[in-house]
């Protein structure tokens, strides 16, 4: 490295993390855009981009791309296609999925696993980590971290699954510790000499983070995400690019917002919560369908909407769920004033089936909805919780790539 480049890099070292995040999220496709976004000189931006390339994280095209109507040609920037990955894992009511995910939210390899989730969480955590370790052995990719998404609020700072209501796990299961131990047993390496350290989070929180960086939430400052899983309902709020997790990681438990006071008893002890009034089981029951054991409840509900929406009973059930969901969203709009709402799981399918009904309910029942409609959009990423688990694992690198990799 030349003395001039060293000086420029020292001047711009604090810009390495922000620069990597700009390329990672697609907001800096060229070096000219990177220069403008960082507010540095062209020379400093060039040194920063060169250092990120030397670390194996991004690629800088050797030849400048053609300029548009204004400005000079500029070098294109992209994430390195053969660069390092993180191991992402997700556990849900019907099993698990493991994946290797690179920068840019690009899924390199994935392996699903179906199994009855045992009461001891260590068994399924060991299984999903071993599946991820096998992917690392097969691909030979360098691993920089690991993230796990679980269908429960994850309390901080201990990383315990506080309320895994739709699993048979005990409340307070130490999922972060079990995940880190499984990574060590499977020999999953971290960026240094030792094994990877696992990070864990609630599946909907992580889905919201992924959608904000790579999907339907891009560009939103105050993003509200509400989604169904295989069972239950979760929510998340992303403020200025960061998850709002509250004082101990337990914020936005929207599944326990009451939308039908005389409704079904909820696992939380209340009645008529979104969790039991608008999830896949609630929809199948309202439509008069008996769930089968062959595929997940979420898939059965989606299939019913897609293939039998013309059936009056199915349409009436969909309208009932939409009205209850709209009531819950209206309350959240009144409290949070988001600039965008995104919906996942069954809620995404219901929005696709009748978008105007849901938007009308939210506008009619919310103060801010009446003064100006809040955009309600479907989530766009496949496996967004899995990609979100990867985002959590990538965060230390995005914060300070030189310290992690230097």
TrEMBL record:
<comment type="similarity">
    <text>Belongs to the ROK (NagC/XylR) family.</text>
</comment>
<dbReference type="InterPro" id="IPR043129">
    <property type="entry name" value="ATPase_NBD"/>
</dbReference>
<dbReference type="InterPro" id="IPR000600">
    <property type="entry name" value="ROK"/>
</dbReference>
<dbReference type="InterPro" id="IPR036388">
    <property type="entry name" value="WH-like_DNA-bd_sf"/>
</dbReference>
<protein>
    <recommendedName>
        <fullName>ROK family protein</fullName>
    </recommendedName>
</protein>
<dbReference type="Pfam" id="PF00480">
    <property type="entry name" value="ROK"/>
</dbReference>
């Amino acid at each position: 490295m030349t003395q001039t480049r060293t000086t420029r890099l020292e001047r711009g070292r604090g810009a390495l993390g922000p620069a990597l995040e700009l390329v990672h999220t697609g907001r800096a496709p060229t070096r000219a855009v990177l220069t403008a976004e960082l507010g540095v000189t062209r020379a400093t931006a060039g040194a920063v981009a060169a250092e990120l390339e030397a670390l194996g994280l991004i690629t800088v095209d050797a030849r400048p791309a053609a300029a548009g109507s204004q400005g000079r040609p500029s070098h294109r920037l992209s994430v390195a296609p053969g660069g390092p990955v993180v191991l992402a894992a997700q556990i849900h009511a019907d099993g698990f999925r493991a994946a290797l995910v690179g920068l840019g939210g690009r899924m390199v390899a994935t392996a699903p696993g179906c199994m009855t989730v045992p009461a001891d969480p260590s068994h399924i955590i060991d299984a999903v980590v071993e599946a991820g370790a096998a992917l690392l052995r097969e691909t030979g990719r360098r691993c920089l971290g690991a993230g796990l998404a679980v269908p429960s609020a994850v309390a901080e700072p201990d990383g315990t699954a506080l309320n895994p209501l739709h699993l048979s796990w005990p409340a307070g299961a130490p999922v972060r510790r079990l995940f880190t131990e499984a990574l060590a047993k499977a020999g999953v390496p971290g960026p240094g000499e030792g094994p990877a350290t696992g990070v864990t989070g609630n599946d909907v929180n992580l889905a919201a983070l992924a959608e904000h960086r790579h999907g339907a939430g891009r560009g939103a400052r105050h993003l509200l995400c509400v989604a169904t899983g295989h069972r239950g309902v979760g929510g998340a709020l992303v403020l200025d690019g960061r998850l709002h997790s509250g004082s101990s990681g337990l914020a936005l438990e929207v599944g326990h917002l009451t939308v039908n006071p005389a409704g079904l008893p909820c696992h939380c002890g209340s009645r008529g919560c979104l969790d039991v009034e608008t999830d896949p089981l609630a929809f199948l029951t309202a439509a008069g369908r008996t769930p089968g054991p062959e595929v997940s409840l979420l898939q059965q509900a989606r299939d019913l909407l897609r293939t039998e929406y013309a059936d009056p009973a199915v349409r009436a059930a969909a309208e009932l769920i939409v009205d209850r969901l709209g009531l819950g969203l209206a309350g959240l709009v009144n409290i949070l004033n988001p600039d965008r709402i995104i919906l996942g799981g069954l809620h995404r399918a219901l929005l696709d089936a009748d978008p105007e009904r849901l938007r009308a309910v939210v506008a009619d029942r919310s103060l801010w909805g009446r003064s100006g409609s809040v955009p309600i959009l479907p989530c766009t990423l496949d496996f967004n919780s899995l990609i979100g688990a990867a985002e959590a694992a990538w965060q230390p690198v995005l914060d300070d790539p030189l310290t992690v990799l230097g």
